[in-house]
What we know:
It is a single chain. By secondary structure, this protein is mainly alpha-helical. It folds into 2 domains: 15-80, Orthogonal Bundle (Arc Repressor Mutant, subunit A), CATH 1.10.10; 99-133. The protein is built from 6 helices and 2 strands. The protein has helices spanning 15-27, 32-38, 47-59, 80-96, 100-108, 115-132; strands at residues 63-68, 71-76. A two-stranded antiparallel sheet has the order 1-2. A hairpin with a 2-residue loop joins strand 1 and strand 2 (71-76). The protein is elongated and about 55 Å long.
Amino acid sequence: MGKKRRSKKAALPTPGELRLLQILWRIGEGTVDDIVRASEEDPTPNYKTVQAWLRIMEGKGQVDHRQEGRAFVFWPLLGRGDVHRVSLRHLLTKYFAGSRSDLLMELLSDERITREELHQLESLIRSRRQEQI
């Protein structure tokens, strides 16, 4: 693979960029044509639009490419976890004034939370407490 470039501070991907990242996470890497074909959207995205987005995303450090013959093969530089962290920080700052406890209380007050999810959260909290000791 080519050189790996990462942005110093990952920016929140736009909805279009996120769709392309999700395709790349699923297929690993691919040409513009591969990405268009792997799209589950109806209608499929326009080839030239995907190509332009990938160039923009490359400038932002979200994807990189190498040349194979006449085609460019793209792969993601941001992982799902990177995007989850950036998205959560954005949500926390924008809607909860940076308060993690307010965010967690809102999540816990949701009646759709399952017993299994509650157990996972309890285990995570216990584990974090042990790390603090």
